[in-house]
């Protein structure tokens, strides 16, 4: 355990106090503890209890050595706490007068059920504070050298979940409209139904050779990136034995990894292509 991190002076000279009976609903970022916000660190310093999810790194929990740890992880297909039970546990802890930190992977309001938990807390009269975090679909792609927007590729980005509450591909999604309208698609929880997703996108007319990246365990020491295409991604993922958590990115911004794979460059690799979009000019010229 380490307690060596100290917070700089806070806004207006001090950081907010996590008062007894409050719940702070906080994003822990995609994995790398360094991607935590200062508000999150401030919360870790004060919490009596940290209720945390499966994708929260131990190092982050170690920054709250005084706090009781309550695991509330949910991983697809494995036995796990029910959402309602988690929310009510938070209510109980707050009513006991604890300073409660609810720590969720990425951003609590991005495919994280943070809205449901906050709603239940407020319905029970528990005061809450929301602390955003870096979502895997943005920060995870950045660690893979893929800019989620790039001026030469996209002026919009579409975030999609690969399965709904029932664990199936979301039926409420209009995959045809998404395929036709999304310039770049960032798909969370897409591994289980990757074949169905690929088929839906191809059937709706997305090009078979459209670049796809699969970024697993993004921002952690176990990060792995698979570059493939829409037509090949199902077979390539199966052959790779890659496992969730993973973000799928569909679109030409994936090509930028050929020049922006900064982790590969730091490890001594050369850029594969300095102009992967074939713009024929230095990218920064306005
Ligand atoms: C329940 S969602 C939570 C998303 C989270 N709230 C966020 O903003 O990143 C879990 C999914 O997020 C994605 N994810 C979270 N952390 C990840 C990571 N380190 N690497 C790749 N994907 C990740 C995966 O698609 C995973 O199945």
TrEMBL record:
One GO-annotated biological process of the protein: methylation
UniProt EC number: 2.1.1.107
Pathway: Cofactor biosynthesis; adenosylcobalamin biosynthesis; precorrin-2 from uroporphyrinogen III: step 1/1; Porphyrin-containing compound metabolism; siroheme biosynthesis; precorrin-2 from uroporphyrinogen III: step 1/1
Keyword Signal among record annotations: no
All residue ranges annotated as the Tetrapyrrole methylase domain in the record: 23-232
Alphabetized PROSITE patterns for the sequence: SUMT_2
Sorted UniProt keywords: Cobalamin biosynthesis, Methyltransferase, Porphyrin biosynthesis, S-adenosyl-L-methionine, Transferase
UniProt xrefs under Gene3D superfamilies: Cobalt-precorrin-4 Transmethylase, Domain 1, Methyltransferase, Cobalt-precorrin-4 Transmethylase, Domain 2
Family: Belongs to the precorrin methyltransferase family.
The protein's name in its UniProt record: uroporphyrinogen-III C-methyltransferase
């Amino acid at each position: 355990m380490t307690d060596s991190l100290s917070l700089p002076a806070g806004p207006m000279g001090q950081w907010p106090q996590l008062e007894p009976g409050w719940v702070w609903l906080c994003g822990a970022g995609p994995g790398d503890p360094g991607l935590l916000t200062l508000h999150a660190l401030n919360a870790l310093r004060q919490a009596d209890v940290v209720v945390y999810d499966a994708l929260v790194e131990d190092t982050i929990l170690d920054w709250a050595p005084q706090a009781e740890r309550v695991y509330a992880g949910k991983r697809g297909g494995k036995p796990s706490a029910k959402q309602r039970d988690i929310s009510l546990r938070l209510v109980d802890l707050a009513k006991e007068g604890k300073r409660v930190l609810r720590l969720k992977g990425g951003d609590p309001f991005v495919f994280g059920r943070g809205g449901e938990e906050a709603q239940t807390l407020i319905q029970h009269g528990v005061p809450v504070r929301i602390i955003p975090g870096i979502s895997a679909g943005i920060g995870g792609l950045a660690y893979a050298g893929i800019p989620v927007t790039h001026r030469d590729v996209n002026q919009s980005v579409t975030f999609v979940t690969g399965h709904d509450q029932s664990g199936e591909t979301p039926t409420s999604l209009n995959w045809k409209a998404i395929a036709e309208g999304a310039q770049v698609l960032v798909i969370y929880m897409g591994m289980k139904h990757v074949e169905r997703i690929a088929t839906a996108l191809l059937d709706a007319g997305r090009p078979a050779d459209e670049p796809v990246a699969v970024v697993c365990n993004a921002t952690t020491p176990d990060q792995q990136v698979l570059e493939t295409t829409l037509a090949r991604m199902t077979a390539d993922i199966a052959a790779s034995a890659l496992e969730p958590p993973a973000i799928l990115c569909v679109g030409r911004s994936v090509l930028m990894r050929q020049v922006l794979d900064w982790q590969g460059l730091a490890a001594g690799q050369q850029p594969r292509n300095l102009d992967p979009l074939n713009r024929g000019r230095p990218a920064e010229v306005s």
